[in-house]
Specification:
The protein has a five-stranded parallel beta sheet, with helices on both faces. A three-stranded mixed beta sheet has the order 3-4-7. A two-stranded antiparallel ribbon has the order 9-10. It is elongated. The chain is α/β, with parallel strands linked by helices. The chain is built from ten helices and ten strands. Bound molecules: ligand 9D3. Its main location: cytoplasm.
Length: 250
């Protein structure tokens, strides 16, 4: 699949995409990212891509015309993939959307800066607006990288252990359980001994699976009760899950 990124800051993408999991997805040819520096599509000597808002107020607005030239250049090279605009007023990005996109043709990713983009461009060209959540960033580049990272790691063979997907938080609608590795007993500088939960050393696979499930349920019930409600409504909680949840004092 192919992603075309329209941005004022193309240099922000290279170092991140050239590391780790994202790099493997790109080297395998499964994900192809093309960067389109918006300033290259300005039409005047000052390379202007923004101007003051009609009606007054603070900040600047990204101009329609450079954006339309950039999108036309993308369309001349790539297919008719959907245009995604990253915006604080967008729908919140989630794992269900990434899973859907991971099997698709890719997208044109439009990263805004300043106060935003002229609404007439958005109305004419944007298919989907996505937000990372209710906090303020300075532009759409980090959200675009978050989407690319999330999709890259879903490509076949990109995670070292394919089963890691299934255990991801959100893939089954619950938060992940805690993880432990060596040493079995950790001695802190204060002289405390911190053992690994004994069940994990027991070799009883069914008991380990049950402990992990219960840890997930407990953490999710405490931190994200909204996810418990969704799982219950979708019939994804077993009788054993419900019995365990009933024992919890939140
Ligand atoms: C004063 C109104 N501001 C909205 C809170 C204007 C504004 C702030 C920050 C407009 C754009 C931005 C830049 N943010 C993004 O481009 C952005 C974003 C974000 O700020 N938070 C979460 N997700 C996203 S996706 C793109």
């Amino acid at each position: 699949m192919r992603f075309d990124v329209i941005t004022l800051f193309p240099d922000l993408f290279g170092p991140f995409l050239q590391q780790g999991i994202t790099r493997r997805a790109f080297e395998s040819g499964q994900v192809d990212v093309h960067l389109w520096p918006l300033r290259d599509f300005a039409d005047d000597n000052y390379r202007r891509v923004d101007d003051r808002p009609y009606g007054g107020g603070p900040g600047m607005v990204m101009l329609v015309e450079p954006l339309e030239r950039a999108l036309a250049a993308v369309r001349a090279q790539a297919g008719a993939a959907p245009v995604i605009h990253f915006s604080p007023t967008g729908r919140k990005m989630d794992q269900a959307l990434l899973r859907e996109m991971a099997g698709g043709p890719g997208a044109v990713l439009l990263c805004g800066r300043y106060e935003g983009i002229d609404q007439r461009f958005l109305d004419r060209h944007v298919d989907l607006e996505l937000s990372l959540g209710d906090f303020v960033l300075s532009g759409g580049e980090l959200p675009a990288l978050a989407l690319l990272d999330g999709i890259a790691r879903l490509q076949a063979g990109v995670l070292s252990d394919a089963r890691s997907h299934e255990q991801d938080s959100f893939e089954d609608g619950m938060l992940d359980c805690p993880h432990y590795s060596r040493p079995e007993q950790l001695t802190t500088p204060e002289g405390q001994n911190l053992p690994v939960p004994p069940v994990l050393l027991s070799g009883h696979h069914a008991q380990i699976a049950q402990w992990r499930r219960e840890q997930s349920l407990q953490l999710t019930a405490r931190r994200r009760p909204d996810l418990i409600a969704v799982a219950r409504a979708a019939g994804r909680l077993s009788k054993a899950d419900e019995r365990f949840l009933a024992t919890l004092v939140l």
